[in-house]
Design brief:
about 625 residues, 21 helices, globular
């Protein structure tokens, strides 16, 4: 079967070829096809750079196999990268079709990052986190490179280089700024990724790079490499290391090479390393120490890490180690969608400068530049354009352009009040500014939940878990986070419980009309609220919700509090207080810190509030009537 010459972007063409080979070749394993396709792409680049027409025709005319013609050429031009055992698994017919498919593409004249993006699009389907590999979005890579702004001629290292995104983007940065290229060193365990990184660097920085297909965490091996090949004494380290609890490092020979391979103990005076070796350690933790060790004095690091590292109380030793070895000078809070659809893990970016050993632990007064990205240029499904054709907003570009001047107030210098809690958005002054402006519009001041509780205006109670075995035993709704929509409770009869179970929880939840339910735990709805009324207050509330009840002392009505909780500035305030461990977020005790404009407002917002209240009250009345008219459901 012959395939037509493809047209379109590199990404589209690579994908079409991959799926053609998957459907029509003798191989069906994604990794086998991707490995061979990477070699086909490498060969296509070679044909464009060198006069290989005679060898190409010999293969295309079926006078020799790919392993007889193409493989020796790859070994010749990529010594130490392609080896004799890297045989093609695809049949020659499929390989010929692949070469013809790519024949009209220009690799030499195409921007290197576009080829890298295309290969990432190709590799993406097989990288779903089983190895902790998640490709970094190009806009974030570009922003990190421009914030670090490597000087001309320096050594730039990525110990988890993948397809070489950070390295090639640095080459682009030097080219755009008219600087001479420096030295690039990349490392990656994945064979296919390191192969393609080699190809990309051959295009953008020939004779100025080395890509190692090796375990980056084997520190003793890295230290044994000759200077030209060594990642040690780096001026800049830029990386997105593999992360995840599913891929722990349990090789004792690796763990014993790192201080983080040992158990640390914390006290009021800080964390100290013991002599007890850990049985396992998360890879991202070891990579933090690795990157610091790779840097020379005054070297700079930009690293992407899961948010759990920034706020988990058990990660305090990581921060003490960084404080002792240099200065954290900037943090970026990334949107939840940054690495979607590949993974839902929330990440942030850390920028660090290595200095001499620091024994003065003035942690509480340390100031760090903070920036919060609300948008990353794509949605949860990875789509870069909306239904109307408009691109999704991308804050990373603005964050990078504003880094030098700080004119757009995207960055704010913030004092770190808790040296072991460095979730960037928690210290975001932009949120404070938005809240203060909103409070002025309301003609009042900001007030916290803690202050309202202290003045006995409100009470905050927890919900409860009743067990799934209680579902469907009666008609009393069990309200979960998924039932909070558009300020109302959506009743799901599937989760309704018996009168007996309701009576068990009624006396501890004290629900009544006017109570506000707020989501405080979960994935996406934290901060969303609904108000109970006389038609739906007979229910049980899940533990992931908090019940906010007004007392007779409150100088405002429940609907007014609900209204201010819905304001964008307040939702952003709630968002900054949420801590996300892996994929699940929690507001926890920080609900007491939530600041809102005093709901005892008046003036220009009064009309808007009255309209808001009227709509919700009328809707609840109509929904009640619909519920009364609703007959019994018939199961299919």
């Amino acid at each position: 079967m012959q395939i037509e010459i493809a047209h379109g972007s590199h990404s589209e063409i690579f994908k079409k070829l991959y799926y053609h080979l998957y459907s029509n070749s003798n191989a069906s394993r994604a990794e086998r096809i991707t490995s061979d396709l990477s070699k086909i792409i490498l060969f296509a680049i070679l044909c464009e750079r060198y006069n290989l027409q005679q060898e190409l025709e010999r293969f295309l005319n079926n006078k020799a196999s790919a392993n007889q013609v193409i493989l020796p050429l790859l070994i010749k031009y990529y010594p130490g990268v392609i080896e004799e055992h890297d045989l093609f698994g695809l049949d020659d017919k499929s390989i010929r079709e692949g070469i013809n498919y790519l024949s009209h593409l220009s690799f030499k004249d195409s921007p290197s990052h576009s080829i890298g993006d295309a290969f990432q699009a190709l590799m993406g389907p097989r990288l779903r986190g089983d190895k902790g590999q998640f490709f970094t979005p190009k806009s974030l890579v570009r922003a990190m490179v421009r914030i670090i702004a490597p000087n001309s001629g320096v050594k730039v290292v990525d110990p988890a280089c993948g397809t070489g995104g950070f390295l090639t983007e640095t080459a682009v940065f030097w080219s755009e700024s008219g600087q001479a290229k420096g030295r690039f060193v990349g490392l990656d365990k994945d064979r296919d990724l390191s192969l393609f990184a080699n190809a990309l660097l051959q295009v953008v920085a020939p004779d100025s790079f080395i890509i190692h297909n090796t375990n980056s965490l084997n520190l003793s091996y890295l230290e044994s490499l000759p200077d030209f090949e060594s990642p040690m004494n780096a001026d800049v380290v830029l990386t997105n290391p593999p992360f995840g609890a599913k891929i722990p490092i349990n090789d004792l020979s690796i763990l014993q090479q790192f201080e983080f391979g040992y158990i640390w103990e914390g006290s009021d005076k800080g964390w100290k390393k013991t002599e007890r070796l850990r049985s396992t350690q998360d890879p991202q933790i070891l990579f933090i120490e690795l990157c610091v060790k790779l840097l020379k004095e005054n070297g700079l690091m930009g690293i992407i890490l899961p948010e759990g590292v920034f706020g988990n109380t058990n990660s305090g030793y990581v921060w003490d180690y960084l404080y002792q070895n240099g200065q954290i000078y900037a943090l970026i809070d990334c949107p939840r969608t940054t690495f979607q659809p590949s993974t839902d893990i929330k990440t942030n970016v850390l920028f660090f400068k290595k200095t001499k050993k620091n024994t003065n632990r003035e942690l509480a007064t340390q100031k760090i530049w903070i920036s919060v990205a609300m948008n990353c240029g794509h949605d949860r499904r990875g789509r870069e354009t909306k239904g109307n054709g408009q691109p999704f907003p991308d804050d990373f570009a603005l964050i990078a352009s504003d880094w030098i001047t700080k004119e757009s107030h995207i960055w704010s210098e913030s004092q770190i009040t808790n040296p072991y809690y460095l979730v960037p958005r928690y210290y975001d002054k932009v949120t404070d500014t938005l809240l203060e402006e909103q409070a002025k519009d309301f003609g009042g001041k900001l007030i916290t939940f803690r202050e309202m509780v202290k003045m006995e205006w409100i009470k905050i109670n927890k919900g409860h878990e009743i067990g799934s075995e209680a579902y469907g035993t009666g008609d009393i709704p069990f309200v979960r986070t998924s039932d909070i929509n558009n300020f109302e409770v959506s009743i799901d009869p599937t989760n309704s419980v018996s009168e007996e179970i309701y009576e068990k929880y009624r006396s501890v939840q004290f629900l009544k009309p006017g109570d506000i339910l707020m989501v405080v735990d979960g994935r996406y709805k934290i901060g969303r609220c609904a108000i109970l009324n006389e038609w739906n207050y007979r229910c049980i509330v899940q533990s992931h919700l908090r019940i906010i009840s007004l007392t007779n002392k409150a100088p405002f009505e429940p609907m007014a509090l609900l209204y201010v909780l819905s304001l964008p500035s307040v939702q952003r305030e709630i968002r900054r207080l949420v801590f996300i461990q892996s994929t699940l977020g929690s507001l926890g005790k920080r609900i007491q810190e939530v600041k809102v404009p005093n709901p005892s407002f008046h003036g220009q917002w009064e009309e808007a509030f009255q309209h808001f209240a009227y709509i919700l009250e009328k809707r609840s009345e109509l929904l009640s009537k619909l519920t009364q008219m609703h007959g019994s459901e018939v199961e299919l």
